[in-house]
Amino acid sequence: MVDRAIGCLLGGALGDSLGAPVEFQPLDDIHAEYGAAGISEPPPQALLGDATQLTLFTGEGYLHAWTSGNHGRRWDPVGSVAAACQRWLTTQQDDGPAPGATGLLAEAELYANRSPGITTLRALGEGHFGSPDDPANTSQGCGGLDRAAPAGFAPGPELAFELGCRFGALTHGGTGGWASAGAHAMLVHLVAVQGRRLPAAIDQATGRVLREDERTAHALAEASTLARLGASVGHVERLGQGWVGPEALAIGAYCALALPKADEFADAVRLAANHSGHSDSTAAITGALLGARHGTAALPRDWLKRLELADVVERIAHDLGASCSGEAFNERRYLGFAHA
């Protein structure tokens, strides 16, 4: 399980770094710049995108809640993740770590602006966090979905779904914005923790999210149908562009389903990145799902060597997996943070 957790977060980071250079570009422009195959590998310096940055801070926030509860303190994962996301906001406002900074705030490379979404920045800046029952706005964007994977390492699939929804709703109040985050977290749990195969996991997540959001459920169901017809850029475009949560999740899931084998990881994230839309988010979702399914053995070694802060991603992922599997990890590093 720990290896699959590491595969999940590193796989997501690789997909994010692959898709980032072509985000916002129409497919014709991608082909004009990179050739008929499109972008095929991350840049020589594979930088973490804002989705991966926020995933790391979400993981740190969840681990603060987990270790606090494990040591007889308050168990408040939503408050802890909200506070962690505000710590990430500090990295977008300051030039570097303050003296005595701890945890992720001590990592100088995270103080880099990677074009985060306006909805996320505004919600965190205002400090008015929403919930599914009390939304902060009406955004259906995929910014809440982007950071949901750590919720997948909650003890059970229903809790993973609930936390994914609540983590997403902190900044994205539209039903599709937070329900897609819950579905993604549940998928990660079913695949990485329970060892389920992707088709069965997606069927189960589709059924669960249908109770909250028909659009997300229908998008996942269409992704499953199209995957049975094979891998095609046309199928990706049919699912949308990925700017909203249901579309991004459907594209990411489709590419993982259409190219599900461990040795197809690179081709799957390429398929998820080379389209006219939110290429970094969709490729990150595909990479996270396949990494959760197959573990680190599926990840291209030469891509990992160029990934920014790969050791930090691995550390957070290891501890998420260990917290869920009962293995020992350094809990002290997470006890000093506040919750919102």
TrEMBL record:
Tree of life domain: Bacteria
InterPro entries with a match to the protein in the record: ADP-ribosylglycohydrolase, Ribosyl_crysJ1, Ribosyl_crysJ1_sf
Cofactor(s) recorded in Swiss-Prot or TrEMBL: Mg(2+)
One Pfam family from the record: ADP_ribosyl_GH
Keyword Nucleotide-binding: no
Keywords noted in UniProt: Hydrolase, Magnesium, Metal-binding
Keyword Hydrolase recorded: yes
Cofactor details (free text): Binds 2 magnesium ions per subunit.
Gene3D superfamilies, alphabetized: ADP-ribosylation/Crystallin J1
Alphabetical list of SUPFAM superfamilies matching this protein: ADP-ribosylglycohydrolase
Name of the protein described by the UniProt record: ADP-ribosylglycohydrolase family protein
Organism: Allosaccharopolyspora coralli
Biological classification of the source: Bacteria, Bacillati, Actinomycetota, Actinomycetes, Pseudonocardiales
